[in-house]
Amino acid sequence: MEFTGGHVLSVSQFDREDISRIFDVADELRPYAQRKRITRVLQGAILANMFFEPSTRTRISFAAAFNLLGGEVRETSEIRASSLTKGESLYDTARVLSGYSDVIVMRHPEAGSVAEFARASRVPVLNGGDGPNEHPSQALLDLYTIRSELLAQNKSVNSMKISLVGDLKYGRAVHSLCKLIALYDNVRFNLVSPPGLELPEELVLQLQSQGHRVEKYHALEAGIHNVDIVYVTRTQEERFPSQAEADRYKGLFRLNQSVYTQNCEPNTVIMHPLPRDSRANAQELDDDLIENPHLAIFRQTDNGLVVRMALFALVLNVVDAVHDHSQPVTWYTAKRTPR
Ligand code: NCD
Q1: Which of 53, 138, 285 most suits a substitution to test ligand 1, by most atoms within 8 Å of the C-beta?
Q2: For residue 54, is it within any domain?
Q3: Considering only CA atoms, which residue is closest to atom 11 of ligand 1?
Q4: Annotated catalytic residue, options 37, 107, 108, 172
Q5: CB–CB of 233/171 below 8 Å?
Q6: Tens-digit pLDDT profile for residues 82-122
Q7: Catalytic: which of 21, 30, 40, 57?
Q8: Cis ω on the peptide bond leading into residue 275 (within 30° of 0)?
Q9: What domain range is 269 assigned to?
Q10: What is the CATH number of the domain that holds 290?
Q11: Active site includes 135?
């Protein structure tokens, strides 16, 4: 795709060459994320960070990524605090905000809303999650993490085996991740969900039509044998018709150290987009895994920063200029070593 001035709305807009380009730029920007160097290449640019649904990681990491490239951030983090509650259309909001900013990140509870917003925007729009539909930057950082975890084991994304576990119906992170991984060759997907929360059938058919092997499981233990990656997700309770309905599914699958030891390969990588639900009735990913060296969840979040920096650098066409505006860091950073 042509990155300069483009929107990032769905992983469907990428091919493998685009993904390599994003990952190469992310690698190049790592010294800035690690505070080894500073760049002011986006000095004077403004990001409008519009989050009309709860978020911690995605919102702060997009903002921090923009700051690390030297740009300024303005944000709204509550739908109640915005004029959308006064009946303003997405069209009007987009026309207005794109006059104030150079790029916009938007999260919104309705599928398709960010694309609708982007049609009226005068500046590039990046999708920070549109309802149950897509979460492209999460899928990119997940794939970037998968690639580096597998590389450390002399494996590659081609021919890997991955279990996707949990709420595969409403989880936008898994929806985007499946589509992105499907661009590679000969992947085995284990789809592990409670009955009723299966991956949408059109996505299953898409994976199969692209030549991948798909197996469905309704029990956690059976679905996580002999795989390279286990990607666990939270029950997306906010998307259920009622809390009681969501509660029926919570706590059905719990990956802890003992389930891992009994069922996974000794080097199976454990991932989760976060937040994990640590309340007693959920715990899909137990805290007792924290010492497991294959738990990659905080490597995922760290990688989110460089991947989001890469998206901004590409869309605003400053990749080649980054190093021209670079200088060493002068403050204390010794503890900021990568995990
Ligand atoms: C995910 C999301 O918002 O879709 N979180 C995130 O952005 N890292 C997953 C989730 O909320 O469960």
Answers
A1: 138
A2: yes
A3: 275
A4: 107
A5: yes
A6: 677 778 899 999 999 999 999 999 999 999 999 999 999 99
A7: 57
A8: yes
A9: 136-299
A10: 3.40.50.1370
A11: yes
